[in-house]
Amino acid sequence: MTTSHTLFPLLLPLAAVLALVSVAAAAGAVSTSDFQKITREERNYRQKKVIDVSHKYVPELPAYGSKNGLGNFIRLQTSIKLGDLSNYSFFNLSTHSGTHVDAPGHFNETLFELGYDVVSLDLRTLNGPVLVVDTPRDKNITAEVMRSLNIPRGVKRVLFRTLNTDRRLMHKKEFDSSYTAFTSDGAEYLVQNSDIKLVGVDYLSVAINPKDELTKVHQLLLAPKDFPERWLSFAASVWVVSQRNLFVFP
């Protein structure tokens, strides 16, 4: 299968798009000028195309290493039907459930101890135009595959559509360890030869299954460049979004 590139004006669902408009002063009423600013920003926002690539949380959604998917992760705590004041639910999920982003400290103890969680990520990287690429269906994402994709310099966000999508792995409850993902040489090629800052993959992990590759790929993609000199200003080299849903694309 030949590789193909598709550019989508995608806004990832991991962050809301906020137009920070200065409205009324703290002690003053909203003026006509304030209202005009808000309506102008609202009009500009509505002109943007937003594509939700996240998977719906359901008990059958696969979970890493599990035969049973997420299971019953939500429980109704209070119910209006039962005479309570409100409907209120309780969630019990890991931080890697469903469509999620890997934190800089996921495979880096130093960054973990320094508190570099997903809150430290810049929302501007998580939102914006994205390039969707189809990878060869008979290979993992190796250095050879990355070279063949010929992703231009300047591209910041890429979603990789692989055999996982064809196999509908995210729609099968039992975890499948034969999924397609990055190899360590593929991850190293991406870091060394592209300007990509956000990577999206179509299954539960960005890295292939063997333990040593799992560690290497994450460390290569998430490690700050020029560590430790620049870690304060740039916590992760590449951000990883797992389990995005590409069935919405033509």
TrEMBL record:
Where, if anywhere, are coiled coils annotated? none
Family stated for the protein in its record: Belongs to the Cyclase 1 superfamily.
Give the lineage.
Answer: Eukaryota, Viridiplantae, Streptophyta, Embryophyta, Tracheophyta
Q: Gene encoding this polypeptide?
A: LOC107832684
Domain of life according to the entry: Eukaryota
One GO BP on record is: L-tryptophan catabolic process to kynurenine
> Which organism is this entry from?
Nicotiana tabacum
This protein is called Cyclase-like protein 3 isoform X5
Q: Name one Pfam family in it.
A: Cyclase
Q: List the GO molecular function terms.
A: arylformamidase activity
- UniProt keyword list: Extracellular matrix, Secreted, Signal
Q: Where does the signal sequence lie?
A: 1-26
Subcellular location per the Swiss-Prot or TrEMBL entry: Secreted, Extracellular space, Extracellular matrix
